[in-house]
């Protein structure tokens, strides 16, 4: 399915972070609202070391109250051999029946922290993990014996979050998606090439379509150079949106195709219609494949985003009105992968 201007339908995601909210139930309503708008996924930041909700635990609760929306927590850094958190993310994929993704800890919008992607080795060597993706059959990788070279690659999972824990040896079927969708902030030059090689979704914090277009082209070229099809990478602009002005025109510096730079990242301040115009312009000019939108005021701006901006984009035929599939990879039109990778810092 393509948009009227010939490009594929755009992709939209929203953050559901709420300042000072510790109750997992408080995040169910915002996620359901985003699902009513048919957004690809919602994100929830990591609060490791700070008071706040456990992102994995909250989205595990949200999974049972939603049916289609993708769920992408920011998780503590996943390093080769750091299987506890990885298993917890894979368990979220099972709970949600294939709707999980993850972002590396610290790589939140405006934080200025980049992650580095690399392949994950087995317990006794550098070979990529096999076995749990259902590609190589039982007994060939993590979670049992008889891995590469006959090494014992069994391990124990012991992840305990504020409201979500996984302990003991890996159990259950492989994750429905093969591995959850990998989301990384690719704004920094130090992470861009590895993000192009391994990420499923790359986020860019930029203030103009020309800059976004150049970075998207760089990511796609780097993906091709690594032997990867560029169309298997989705590039989304990350943008904080302040829709408190209702239907008023965007403030100077916020409209005209570009948001304003702030210490916390790019910011759009205006109305839902103006935001729809910005999204349309960037997408039609091939600057991005879509947007990851962060409501400045969580409840007010998410409601105006879904019922205003998204509804207008749907009316114009630029964004879907229903989910054609059930997994996050289907929402993003990404194939189920054969291998798995991890993020480290």
What does this structure look like?
This protein has helices spanning 28-36, 55-63, 83-95, 189-198, 209-225, 272-284, 298-315, 328-331, and strands at residues 11-15, 41-44, 70-75, 101-104, 116-119, 157-160, 165-168, 181-185, 201-204, 234-242, 260-262, 265-269, 290-295, 341-344. The chain starts with 10 loop residues before the first strand and ends with a strand. Helix content is 27%, strand content 19%. The radius of gyration is 19 Å and the shape is globular. With 345 residues, the chain is of the alpha/beta class. The chain has an 8-stranded parallel barrel with strand order 1-2-3-4-8-9-10-13, surrounded by 7 helices. The longest helix has 18 residues, at 298-315.
SSE layout:
Elements: E1 11-15, H1 28-36, E2 41-44, H2 55-63, E3 70-75, H3 83-95, E4 101-104, E5 116-119, E6 157-160, E7 165-168, E8 181-185, H4 189-198, E9 201-204, H5 209-225, E10 234-242, E11 260-262, E12 265-269, H6 272-284, E13 290-295, H7 298-315, H8 328-331, E14 341-344
Parallel strand pairs: 1-2, 1-13, 2-3, 3-4, 4-8, 8-9, 9-10, 10-12, 10-13
Antiparallel strand pairs: 5-14, 6-7, 11-12
Q: Tell me the total number of β-strands.
A: 14
Strand percentage, roughly? 15-25%
Task: Provide the low-confidence segments as ranges.
Answer: 106-168, 339-345
Overall geometric form: globular
- Helix count equals 8
């Amino acid at each position: 399915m393509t948009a009227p201007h010939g490009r594929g339908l755009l992709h939209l995601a929203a953050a559901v972070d709420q300042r000072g909210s510790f109750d997992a139930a408080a995040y169910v309503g915002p996620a359901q609202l985003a699902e009513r708008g048919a957004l690809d996924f919602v994100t929830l930041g990591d609060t490791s070391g700070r008071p706040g909700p456990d992102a994995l635990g909250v989205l595990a609760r949200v999974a049972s109250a939603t049916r289609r929306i993708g769920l992408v927590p920011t998780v503590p850094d996943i390093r080769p051999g750091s299987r506890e958190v990885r298993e917890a993310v894979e368990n979220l994929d099972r709970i949600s029946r294939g709707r999980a993704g993850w972002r590396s800890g610290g790589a939140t919008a405006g934080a200025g922290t980049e992650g580095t992607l690399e392949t994950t080795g087995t317990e006794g060597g550098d070979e990529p993990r096999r076995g749990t993706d259902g590609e190589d059959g039982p007994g060939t990788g993590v979670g049992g014996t008889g891995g590469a070279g006959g090494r014992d690659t069994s391990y124990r999972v012991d992840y305990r979050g504020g409201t979500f824990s996984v302990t003991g040896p890996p159990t259950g079927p492989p994750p429905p998606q093969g591995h959850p969708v990998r989301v990384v902030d690719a704004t920094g030059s130090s992470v861009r090439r590895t993000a192009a090689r391994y990420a499923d979704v790359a986020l860019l914090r930029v203030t103009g379509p020309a800059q976004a277009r150049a970075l998207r082209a760089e990511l796609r070229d780097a993906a091709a150079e690594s032997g990867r099809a560029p169309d298997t990478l989705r590039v989304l602009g990350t943008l904080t949106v302040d829709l408190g002005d209702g239907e008023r025109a965007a403030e100077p510096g916020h409209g005209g195709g570009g948001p304003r730079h702030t210490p916390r990242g790019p910011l759009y301040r205006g109305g839902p219609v103006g935001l729809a115009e910005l999204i349309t312009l960037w997408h039609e000019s091939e600057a991005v494949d879509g947007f990851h939108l962060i409501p400045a005021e969580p409840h007010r701006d998410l409601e105006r985003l879904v019922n205003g901006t998204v509804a207008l984009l749907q009316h114009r035929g630029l964004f879907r009105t229903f989910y054609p599939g059930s997994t996050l990879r289907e929402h993003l039109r990404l194939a189920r992968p054969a291998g798995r990778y991890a993020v480290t810092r």
